[in-house]
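Tutorial, part two.
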Amino acid sequence: MSRGAGNLQRLILEQLDLSGPIQLNELCWQLATREGRLTTGDESGAIDRSFYSSFLRAVNLLGQRVVRSPRKLLDLNELVAYYPFKTRSAFIKDLRQRLLPIVADWLSQRNAARFRKAQTEHHLLNRLATSAREEANEVWASIESQLFDAISRLRGESRIVLLSILVKGRELFVEHSSVWEGRSLGRLIDLGFRLEPLGPEDRCVLTDVKKLYDCCLPSAKVNHAWLKSQLYSIVSFSRWGSSSGLSDEVKGVLLERDRKFIETLPGHVPPHLKRVGNFASPRKIEYSGFLNELIRRDVLAPFEFLNLASKS
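Running the prediction step on this input gives:
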């Protein structure tokens, strides 16, 4: 039975009142399941297309009664929590809920990424507008003299860390600088704030560096860029369209950790011998094409979060 936009709006508001902030696609799945709007077939069903369209229309019609906050995913935990719901297919949702925790755990243990965090900082700074970059360089120039004074006062590990911050800052904020520090500035700042003892003047200088860093490299952008780098290390995203391919290495990890499930996926063919006449040639394993649905390009797009607007 179909529901009008008014009824769906009421359901959305009721659910938001119960759950608090929630990702849009997850809310759609909750309501579609509760209202019996999952179609049969297509492996294990899907959200009915008409219900999905009605749900999006109802959200739009709610207007200022809800707060809509689009943003990109920040880390592997959010990948596991939110990405499974970004599909209408129940089969793909269940596949992601089962296998993404394995992928996330493997990436975390290996600290795998296509680019280092220091490279990510360079990339994000290079994308700043020229005027913003020039302003950042000027702010850094005003901080340098204070850093030199702090370094002259300090000894031991504190002196080494602040010197590394000075070198990294010059690498990032001084044009044609020839100095280099392999660690990211974000990591060095974190190390600096953990130093003990650190006097008020030295901590003040470190705070100024942190303010400049946060202005040029907001944590949301840095975290998403790092997640993107992690995903690019295991997925070949098509430049055009939404197709993607999970690496054979990760497919092998999934097979090792959840063999029974992987082997029962449609299209999975184990290693075998193919006979032609009197000859037999070995054939490598053929993984199910559904594994390429585990992570698609839409994982990099913004995710929308909903919350009830505060009553004035």
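The chain is about 55% helix and 10% strand. In part three we will examine how such features are distributed along the chain.
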